[in-house]
Amino acid sequence: MAQVPTISITNPDLESQDLSMHSPELPSTPDSPSVFDFVKHLQDFETEDPLHEPTLHSFYEHKSILLTGATGFIGKALLWKIVESLNNQVDKIYLLIRPSLTGRRQMQAAERLQEDILANKAFVNLKRQLGPTLFDAIVKHKLRPIHGDLTLPGLGLGQEDQKAVMENVNIVIHCAANVDGNERLDLAVKTNALGTLHLAELASACPLSCFVFLSPLQVHHSESLSDHLLPLPEQGPEAILETTLRTIEDIPTLYPDYKAHYPNTYLFSKALSEHLLAKHVDKKRAMGHKPSSMTIMRLSPLGPSLQEPLVGWADGVNGANGVILLTGKGTKLIQPNRADSIADVLPVDFAVRMILGAVAILPPPHQDFVVPLVSSAVPTTASVRDSFSSHDPHRFSTPSLASSSTSVQSDNSVPFPYICQVTTSSLQPVSWRLAYEAMRYYWTRATNITLPSSEVYFSPQGISRAKTMMNSIRSVASTYIATTSPEPVVRNKRHSHRFSRCLDKATKLSFTVKLNFRYSAVDQDSHSDRLLHVLSQDPAADKLDPHGIVPRDTDKLFWIHYFLNASYGVHYYVLLESDLRLPSPQPGWASALPLCSLDGQHLVDRQVQSDLYSGDQIQQRTVRMTKYLRQIITQGSVKSSSTKENDESWLVDLDDCLEDWSQDVNFQANRDRRMLLGKWRKTVGSNDEAVKVVVLNDKRVHLAIEQITKKAGVSKQTAMNEALKTLLRMSERTQLAFVWFAGSFLKSLLDSLFDSISIREESIRYIRDVTLGKRVVYIPVSKSILDPLLIWYIAIRYHLPVPALLCDESTSQLGPISDIYRLAGAYYVKRDRSQRSPLHSAVMAAYSQVLLREHEALTGCLEKSRTHIGKYQPSYQDGLIEMVIEATLQTNQLPTKSNASVASDSPPESPVSVASHSVDGSPKRHHRDVVLVPINITYENVPELAYLIGNVLDQKPQRQETLPITRDVVRPSESMDRRNKVSENGDHPRKCGKALIGVGQLVSIQDTVAKTNLQETDQEQLTQIITHAVENSQRKALVVTPTALISSIILYGRATGGVCISKIKELMEWLRQETVVRGYFIDWQEGEDVDAIVFNSFRLLEESKNLIIEGKEVNDDTNIRINDHADNVMTLSYYANQVTDVFLLDAFFAVVYISISEETVSEHELMDRFRFLTQMLEREFVLHWDVDEQFRAIMTSFEAQDLLHKVAESDPVQINLCIKAENNPAEYEHLMFLASLVYPTIDAYWITSCSLSALEIVPMLPCCIVPQLSQWIATHLITNRRTIYREVLSTEASQTAVQVFMALGFLNEVQAKEKLSPDAQILLHELGITTKETLIELSGQNSEGGKTPVSTVDPEGMMKALMAQIQMNRANSNMADLCQQIDSYRLESASQKESFHNAQIFQKCLKQINGILQASTSLAKKRNIDLSEQEGGLIQLVCALRSNSNMPAADHSSQNRSLRRISEAYNLK
User: Fold this and answer.
1) pTM for this structure?
2) Could you write out the DSSP letters of every residue in 1340-1369?
């Protein structure tokens, strides 16, 4: 048989060098590159004729590989890496696969390749990564499964397969083995030893370059060296093989002295295999065969991957996988004396890179090689026990000689086969104590199982035998199933069976697995060091460099995260739990809920020391308080009917906590630890007098007092007393010990609410650097009641300036939540300027400045309240920014000549604030700068979202007892059905996912003033500039979650009846790329399984309630659609608005693009349509755009993507719209998706304009009633399929639409008392509408419904109409034309049929509203009040809408119905 060409790995010039190995000449092509030349070049060896250095990949060029054990853990990982990184180099990959029985039929090799290998998530993800076409081509042309059995001569290969292998295979990697240590000795030896010998014999007949054999022996003998074989009985390996195969006796019977050396048959058979391989190469040399490279890779126990194929990927329960699984279920496998030994678990992807590197780098030996020596004689049991506890891996007696005639080693020879010790001992691994804590942390959070702490686990007594029995495998399985929430689709039963099988198998292998970690780890040998060096130096081998996944400078946190992800990998990939995500934060992100005992204990992690309560009692008290507060936040109230008793219990626990924290002597004595909590007083009220002096000395307070004394005629002392009362009401009332408790309790609360809270490490450094020597105001986007508390906790956790919390007075009425706010340093103000007096405003500004000076940090929101629908809200003009500007630029203290008393005419002088240098080295300023920190917190699941959505769907005016009302309408949140109760069961409520804290570009007050050249007197303009800068920075700080991506995709699928999972994944990948391109962060790690992301998002979206998953089995073809109810839609819409904000400009233009049916359009018309849409929706999305600039930017972007082209030499400029559904369906789908982000808002504005047709019947409407009217109109349109977007039922969109229509001149606002008669005002007041309520009417020429034409008789009205025409894209100035203009942008608006039907909607709405007015006797007639026809119609319309939104749930006729539709909810009878 002819030899295939091989790469020469020697050079004659090297024979004169003093090297440790010599190689004979091998046949090679004349110009074949030498890999060893490359190696010795890196070792500073010189050659006479230096050639171009070959890459590692070049070794694999045109090579064929025979891989055994490809269906196992390491085999799959090797095959994946070869296909992923070497698919262009290797010729073929032969996979020796043993047939297996499935039921009553036998699966052949090709079938097992498809079902056991290619169906694995690793290869499914690789197919998605490479593309189906390339992946299928690789599988078809390069992968060749062959039927074989290691125990048979010639591996049992068929004639054709044997011929192909013998002619083509250059590399053999032997991964197959029987790893069951409880197997009979003869069976284990037959598979592991005899099978290895059969494979080596076959390889000898191949044009072989390298043979790699994997062994687990390095950690099982504490006296092993890299160049030594482990001892065997004196008979020799062949005799031992023959003896063991002829008997069924076990090791203690055959070789009693070796039972201590080899506690199970797996280890014995592997040691025998190593001896047989050494004997084999020695025999072949004696027969004159030229040796090829052979390496025995002694691997530490293999664990889940670090990065490849996926982060945390695992397969099966062999090795460390079984340890992780059983440890997570309460089984003790790691010996107590190993607690502080290194956790030598080898990530499988690190091992794979070492194996593939050894294939290419370690050369064939010289013909005069020597076989490895055998270690010392068999030790006694006592000596073995001593060696187990030793940390010295090199305790050897004088080596005995091997039985081979060539066993004598010379000083300059290297043993062959090579033996590589692959271990993590040189990679700064953590101890088993920390590794166990990481595993415990994961399993306790993921499965709600209770595991002992590391102190208990590694104690000499350990876990008691009784507890071990109680934690038997079956009980653990039942506990797991009981504590895991039910899945919405039928896959639990199958998973529970798999879980039981995995536990049974892991338990069966546990004795073997336990031995893996019984001894001290072995240091890495010279061969492995050389491999790592060469692989790290080859620039073309970056995908094969082990240090590419395990950096040289690893730290403790790296390995902690590894064991976290490894536990996740066993849980997700082995047990197939489908809704889990990686527990570790993304690289570069810090977790604010750390493993306290693992990565350094912070002060808030420390438990208080109490004189009255034990540690367990304190823990139970914390759990009780946390549970109660969690229920209040997530449910709005507790389930128990005894709310008063719960509140009393809370207050008792709170008092006990504060007492314990105040009496903790250790804390009080440590000043450095106290400073971590911020600058707080030691006792409440200790500096109240000083604060009073400073506040009353403030010039704003002084001016307000003077105004009161002059205008109201009260004495100055009375005014000052009022100022002091105001100050007392708003003052923060906390102290240092209370702050410590608040921080500790917040950690427990947040830990119970969220899986993790993360912030970028770069953001932490950025805040520290920029705010050095300055004062800080944190400004988060208002999304949750927890926002200020989260920022406060982050500041303490990362040693940032700890803020006082500026809160609205309404926050003080939230019970236990308010208690925590107060203890954290909250002070309460009236944010509504109309509700506070000038004196209150002055005291608020002065006191805020005092706190900013004392704490050097505040936090407050620009918005008035939390967002209810996930969109950004306009800033609320409460004076926060003005106060910060004044505190930065002005001295608000009045100087005095004497130390007068507080009651004197001139308040005393306050302390002078400290000036500082700026960070950039600019000249010293008189006042310390204040830096605004824009923050955007993204919640995967907002804790109180159900409450927020209930508010936005329903109008909830106060009940008026004087008005008898009959129930006609059901409010959406009142109809409670079974869907809302699915996730309420279980003692362990699901968490709210992750909270991700994004930090935007910081805004300096003084720098902004310097850049804008504004004077301090231009405060209004300066406030606007700073506010816009903060808002823009907040938006750029957004962190997008996969939950948001999936929500937007499922909502997009409403137009097509749903979207399949494969389409969800495809669109997610596209959105992920586009999000990153736009400069936003996304919570999606490289190497994270997309299926895990999808199903975890389904869980967070409460799939059983909000989604409909069609079919019993879930696969890529499964159709997903939303459960089409208003609250379900609003939930997904809330999260989808994250995506909307990222792609808003693209979405606007996509709407315009799709609304044009022609292929060519003028640029002028395109611009007009874009301008109209932008101006209409800019208030809705809080935009501060330059429309022309944005239009040019999006035109450039679309043109670069070949979505449109300008027609050459056209005047005016014509635009060719290139994408239609017929010619490019993929790109058109992307456009449709982008447009779907805005379509619901357009429909809401369209419906609001339809509802305002009422103004053609009644003269005016209360502004507050329009949302209810719009909801009623929307319900009819939904019922008649005129819109598919239930977001139109939101009251916020209709309220904003009215404001937009007023701003654009279509509506005017008037006061009720100015336009209505007293009787009409009385009736409106009876309906809950005060005389202060704003009324709206059609403006100018539209006061008669647009019937009066525009004329020069009314120039003012003509100008208003003309401006409306210009601003609204030449739309006619009546409401009907506005409605039709908006309709032209809606989905399917380009369809002539749709346009015809929609054009009639305005008139149909007018008729329905008119029908209400004629339906029954009016309220005015019931009260015997005479009103004009128009006023009577107004009262009747308001009465009908008000009454139907204000009924108690008990009167609801359909209360007992489990399901309801919004189309029924607003139909008036």
Assistant:
1) 0.84
2) GGGGGTT-SPP-TTSHHHHHHHHHHHHHTT
